[in-house]
Amino acid sequence: MNLIKLKQKIIKTATIANEGHIPAAFSILDILWVLYDRVLNIKPKTANNPNRNRFVLSKGHASIGLYVVLAEKGFMSQKTLEGFGKADSCLGGHPDRKKVPGVEASTGSLGHGLPMAVGLALGAKIKKQKNKVYVIVGDGECNEGTIWESAMLAAHNKLNNLYCIVDYNHSGDQTLDLGDIREKFKAFGWQAVSIDGHNQKEIYRALTKKSDNRPVAIIAETIKGKGLKIIENNPEWTHKYPKLEELDKFLTEVK
């Protein structure tokens, strides 16, 4: 699918709500689409199947990207999506599993999504279920000790049903240079690959890669704000949205 339509929805929804992290949502949109379109194999009618694959958006501030994908896949109506950020809406700045259909974990406190995903993957192993667990973390989150504590636990328990996608858009470089993060995951006992996080063929291959009895780390090189030059890698736009009078210009220029 051409994701321009989804990017336009993100821009429009955030502009009307005066809320949302547009660049973070653009950064992971290709990954989200491949997950929900080709990998997770879940639908609204089977969203509670105990054998379903699970997805955790650890970088919960990118929720608006998840919401537009869920709406496109029928988990919510367009009217619900348009209510994003309103006081009476189920769609907040961070996803809430008790309110939003299709959301597996309430996230937002950075560094907590991977520990939850490890728990889900370990629980599946104990129950002898065949489902897989996927989690997206941001590169900034990888400054958190909980990420590496979870990485050690996952490797120790040989959680080959766990796939951690690092959205490596380098936004965290301004505070701490992570260096070769693929090698770091390898040092913690993971199978690890690096991909172009905007190339859907590469994303699909990595997400369906057979594990060799270890958890899998996918280091996705991405561009924060990918597809809209004014916000690409521009820290000013981290938590900013167009003014109503700018909306048409942004919708036209997005690629």
Automatic annotation (TrEMBL):
Domain Transketolase N-terminal, chain residue ranges per copy: 16-230
Entries under InterPro entries matching the protein: THDP-binding, Transketolase_N
Any Pfam family the entry gives: Transketolase_N
CDD domains membership: TPP_TK (cd02012)
SUPFAM superfamilies (UniProt xref): Thiamin diphosphate-binding fold (THDP-binding)
Protein name, UniProt field: Transketolase
